[in-house]
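We treat protein structure as text, and this decision shapes the records that our systems exchange. We quote a single record here, exactly as it is kept in our systems:
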Amino acid sequence: MTPPVAILPSRDEANTIAAVTMAVDAALDSPDAVIVLADASSDATTIEAFTAVPTRARTIALGDLVRGKGRQVLAAVGHLHRGGLLGGEVLLADTDTRNPDPETYRALLAPVTAGAAMALPDYQRYWDEGNLTNHLARPLIAIATGIDVPQPIAGDAALSTHATLRAIDRVAELTDDILAWNVGGYGIDAFLLLSAADTGRIVTVPINATKQHAPSFPHLPKIFTHAVPVLLHPAAHQDAVPGVIGEYRLADRTLSDQQLNKMLTTLRGLRATARHYDEQPWPDAVATAWHAVAQRQPTAAAAQRLWPAYLDHVHNWLTDGARTTLPERTATLRAGATHIVDLITTEKGSY
């Protein structure tokens, strides 16, 4: 049996890389396994922290990579493939995780060992986090694949070698340079999932803990710009599928007035600089973006037109959510995602 490999894409994660590496090594639990750090940091401290960790697995540090999560992951896969080290399961692990748990990584690897193409975690997320996932990525993945994946861009995942290499081939087949660049950034998670769904079974693994990691909110414009064109791309070559959205697993917490106002001010500032906004309400704007791509309009342009409506929607969500209960928020998210699916997959969504 070919041993598993793990890929750890990193950028200035010196404070968390050691703990993540130790947890991954404990999960792999084999001297024949390989852990690759795919690093694009501003200095050597992340690599130094990584190489200082004693592990059972063999470790490889790839440094000075071109920045972009996807480009770093692809560089690591290429290195492993050229070295004849692929053949077993491939684990991807976020390197900014503050509470890495070997059991989580083991739980992701197990379904792939049993024959699944990909396994993703279903973490509990705080109600104010994961907005791109909750409001947009989850319903669009359901529409593209017919599968409800609660955390489609969770960062952590396990894939079969076949699904991994097929995704690499599909990256090379992309003719849209902008889309290829997006896949090389934060769009890699959605791209791997969409590709894996065409090669085999996708498994969601419930994780009871709430994931603790660096907040993604400060990077929202870049994550949206990279991921949403990838999420809309299936509209160009396939029909929408009426996937069924399941329950949302939210964790509760109270935001201080200062925290909430800071987020709302940021959203309003981003909204003020957005272009091509026609005041179309959510989720009609999502359906318009999907059908624009279906009519062969560029995915990046469709995502750009959707951006202002998304900002307004998240602003409203945070404002209203601060005044509602956790069950109300959970029900609202599920109803909103289901509305998107229904709107795009019925005649009402034929814009």
In short: The chain is about 50% helix and 10% strand. The chain has one domain: 101-349. The chain has a mean pLDDT of 94.
